[in-house]
Fold this sequence. Notes:
heterodimer, A: 392 residues, alpha/beta, Rossmann fold, 2 domains, 7-stranded mixed β-sheet, 6-stranded mixed β-sheet, 41% helix, globular, B: 329 residues, two-stranded antiparallel ribbon, 12 helices, 13% strand, binds thiamine diphosphate, binds iron/sulfur cluster, binds magnesium ion
Amino acid sequence: MAKRVGMEVSLGVSEAVKVADVDVIAAYPITPQTHIVEHLAELVANGELDAEFIPVESEHSAMSSCVGSSATGARTYTATSSQGLALMHEILYIVPALRLPVVMTVANRALSGPINIWNDHSDIMSERDIGWIQTFAENGQEAFDLSVHAFRVAEDHSVLLPVIVNLDGFTLTHVVEPFEILDKAEVAKYLPPYKPLQRLDPEHPITMGAVGIPEVYTEAKKQYEDALVRSKSVVIQAWKEFGDLFGRYYHPVETYKTEGAETLLLTMGSVSETAMTAIDRMREAGKKVGLVRFRLWRPFPFEEFFEAVKGVKTLAVMDRAMSPGGPCGPVAAEVRAALYDQPTRPKVFSFVAGLGGRDVQVSDFEEIVSRAEKYAEKGAPATYDLIGVREI
Amino acid sequence: MIEQDLKDFQKITQKSLPTFEGLAQGHRACQGCGEVLALRQVMKAMGPDTIAVSATGCMEIITSSFPQSAWNIPWLHVAFENVAAVASGVEAGLKAQMRKGKLPEKKIFIVATAGDGGTADIGLQALSGALERGHNFVYVCLDNEAYMNTGIQRSSATPYGASTTTSPSGKHSIGQNTWKKDMPAIAVAHRIPYVATANPAYHLDLMNKIQKAKLINGPAYVHIYSSCPTGWRHEIDKAVEVSRMAVESRIFPLYEVIDGRYVLNRNVKKPISVADYFKPQRRFRHLRPDDIAHIQSRVDADWAALQQKVAGTNPAPPEPEAVSNKKEE
Ligand SMILES: Cc1ncc(C[n+]2csc(CCOP(=O)(O)OP(=O)(O)O)c2C)c(N)n1
Ligand code: SF4
Ligand SMILES: [Mg+2]
């Protein structure tokens, strides 16, 4: 039976991994991911979860062990943050190439330097092109639900790709929220046991991880790119079935008060809740503003995004990462590129805020919207604005 | 414990050589490669119920150029420095699924192989982690004493005095100016149940060591001398000869460390000289007689130290019972 709990979101994620009945967890601790893996270690130690917990000596080895485990057909999970994700970088590209449905939680945290343990999206934005399906959770309920959904999508035979569920470090991982957790029997109705198409098996020997010579490398890349693009329909279908079973429906792009809006804010992750409050205030003041946020980041939800911004004049994109020396924040760059060929499109302005745990307040969103509206008339003075930076 | 693990051990003899080939012919190794010879012997001894994991390096490249593959057993390659971690995952994956009834209960052996670079340098951390955690797998280091796959660059296993492309001999350089890292000793320091050195010129010894390594529960580390005609610049028909000389000169002694106890497998009573060993290999050609004498003294000292380890870890034979000289009265 589904149970309503008041629980730290990290523990909620571990509970989702438990009810998904994973076989192997290989993980290395890093703030703010620690509570997730500590709780999983505890669940294994108590016998509440029958799994092998490999306490690896680095994140590089965590992801490498996940590859080995998943290649035997085991349901496999890990979690990390920031420097840990960066240390995995080399192996991350190999997982989708081997078509292994590993699931990972990334508790988003700033990348060094300077070293900083707090939240932004610089870790994950450096991993845009790894070929994983990527979703972003906004609150505790989503963190739980998206974790269960991740296994379902990853292991679908028409997908067979790894999935990252992003959740903001501290501002989401470490808060206690009320949400509903499903039990193992309920999840079993939604998530069948993983049946690998191929696995390492002495009865049927296969070669995995062969050399891709120039004559085959491009085709190999194309195959998993195609699988990633195709996965969108499975992602959406799996959300629909989740909704039909458990009553909570999710979509690749969410909108809030976009009816009749001339200016839209675009966000990802937990700041979206603050952004909604800002939208409410601005709406009350008579401004025609709304909010759009990406829940699905890879594969990029083109159609859903175009639909969400249709008829809008100005789009203010808030990034939680920088692209030093580049044209704008990484999300803004993607959005601009996606819109470029559209016959009509909003003007896109790039704002970077909330770096390394800097608080983003309602007033910051109001500031972003008013600047964007001004720039739409008079042009932007810079490639992007860094919000809240103190002049030294 | 170990005796129990080895109860099914059947010594491989010249007459009972396994006909099974985990690694097929037709791979792309250089002519006369000693490393692929060792790898073939390893896979013969591992047998068909094996999953092999390879690190990036010569052996991975030459066996797996898609759409061809030389592997008759399930095989996985991921990257250069992580083969021990990948093997850890394979072991855990099988263990969990068998325990949970998702896979039939069956003995499947796991072997991880890497070169000296993938073992002693970039892969050392992953190896140490896997040995310390106690996964049940066999780790094989195929030591050809340099990064051969990328063009003969030095590694920490390159012997003192060898000329490589990143430790070239020259007017101001003897070539490699550091002593070879003692990888087996590092493995022993993890207190794993089985560590051994092997050499494909002693193929029965090698295969029997692999057999023990796979049967013994827990991690096993086997360090295998692997000559490389391309990188060492010896004639392509000399791999076995050079390999044998490495043992006969005491440069690469054959021993096992079973639960911490050292066993010398070949007591070389009348060694050939280091100079003799160097002669067929042009990587040592630039060395002067005093350089060689210096290396010889180090080899002598290392041999003595190994003998000490053997003596120090084997209990002295019991004192013969005191026999009275006095005649019965
Ligand atoms: C992270 C990383 N660094 C460097 C390389 C390039 N590289 C591939 S194989 C190799 C050397 C392999 O040497 P060794 O492990 O001794 O194996 P061998 O080829 O000699 O058998 C190097 C440096 C790589 N593939 N990955
Ligand atoms: S370079 Fe050396 S080790 Fe590599 S395949 Fe050729 S002979 Fe063998
Ligand atoms: Mg080498």
